[in-house]
Design brief:
- The protein has 142 residues and is mainly beta.
- It has a single domain, classed as Methylamine Dehydrogenase, Chain H, CATH 2.130.10.10.
- It is built from no helices and ten strands.
- A hairpin with a 5-residue loop joins strand 3 and strand 4.
Length: 142
C-alpha cells in the first residue's frame, strides 16, 4: 500500500521504519524530525514533531528491537547527532553529540549480549563520543 505523508515544510531528506514496523521517522530541510505511527490499511498519523535541530536534518535511523525500546537518531547540517526516545506517550530529546562538520548519515549499533559499556545505564545516559549507554553503543556518524 502506498501512502502520502503531508507535513514537512520543505523536502524530506531521510526516512526510516522502526525495527518493529510500528513507526516511521522522517527528516527534512525544515530542521525537523517527524515520528509517524502506522495505522490500519497502510496509513500513518504524525504523533510527534521534533524541532530541536538548527539546520537541515539529513538522516534518521532507529535502534531497538521492539515497541518498548525504540529510539530515533537524527543528524545533519547543525553538526549534531541527536537521540530521541518515547517517554510516556511523548517523544523527547534524550542526548546530543557534537560532530566535526555535517553528519550526512547516522546509525546506532545495538550492543551485543554481554558487552560492557563505559557509561552504563539506560540508552542515552552519559552517551558521549565513543561511549555507549545501556542498549546503545557507539554513535556512528559518516
Amino acid at each position: 500500500m502506498l501512502s502520502q505523508l503531508e507535513g514537512h515544510e520543505n523536502e524530506v531528506k531521510g526516512i526510516a521504519f522502526s525495527p518493529s514496523g510500528r513507526y516511521l521517522a522522517t527528516s527534512g530541510r525544515d530542521k525537523t524530525v517527524w515520528v509517524w505511527e502506522g495505522e490500519a490499511e497502510g496509513e500513518f498519523e504524525c504523533i510527534s514533531v521534533l524541532p530541536k535541530h538548527t539546520g537541515d536534518v539529513k538522516s534518521v535511523s532507529w535502534v531497538g528491537s521492539g515497541e518498548d525500546d525504540e529510539y530515533v537518531v537524527s543528524c545533519g547540517y547543525d553538526d549534531q547527532v541527536m537521540l530521541w526516545a518515547e517517554r510516556m506517550d511523548d517523544w523527547v530529546h534524550v542526548e546530543a553529540v557534537a560532530t566535526e562538520g555535517t553528519a550526512w548519515e547516522c546509525a546506532v549499533e545495538p550492543r551485543r549480549a554481554g558487552a560492557s559499556s563505559a557509561a552504563g545505564g539506560a540508552p542515552g545516559e552519559g552517551m558521549g563520543a565513543g561511549a555507549g549507554g545501556g542498549d546503545v553503543s557507539p554513535l556512528a556518524c559518516a
